[in-house]
Amino acid sequence: xxxxxxxxxxTQKRMLKGFYAVFAFLFTVAGIGLIIYGIVxxxxxxxxxxxxTETITATVIENRRFESSTRSPKNHMEHTSVxxxxxxxxxxxxxxxxxxxxxxxxxPEHKVGEKIEIHYDPSNPAKNYYKxxxxxxxxxxxxxxxxxxxxxxxxxxxxxxxxxx
Length: 165
Fold this sequence. Notes:
This protein has 2 helices and 5 strands, in the order αβββββα. The protein is an alpha+beta fold. It has one domain. The protein has a 5-stranded antiparallel sheet with strand order 3-2-1-4-5, with no helix packed on it. It is elongated, with a radius of gyration of 25 Å.
């Protein structure tokens, strides 16, 4: 028979405060990190897109399949997620170029043969993109970061109150 060790209430309180401090710190740091990422990353993408000043109609020639697998820590079952990114083709000055969207979906967003508008660099048409994801990235990261930051700050405030009591 094993004997359980009972912690006194004061030790339990200190341990709980320690856990709460780690939780508050991690949420605050994650929030700040996501906000910074949400501000910086879209600007880097915008710089990448700046030279792509021309638009042209391209044709979807393929929906490239992407698979990602995750394994559940509880039952060790593997789950495979499938998404499709449109591969497109377009012509500039008699030369054919191809590109692939940076975003994928399931079901595929476009059918093969469908026309889409893409942006390309007139001095280097091989540099092109289909969708500017920087706005979505900015909103998702800064919004999520804001939520994490608020939870972290409220947790720190509550921790400080608890310590003072």
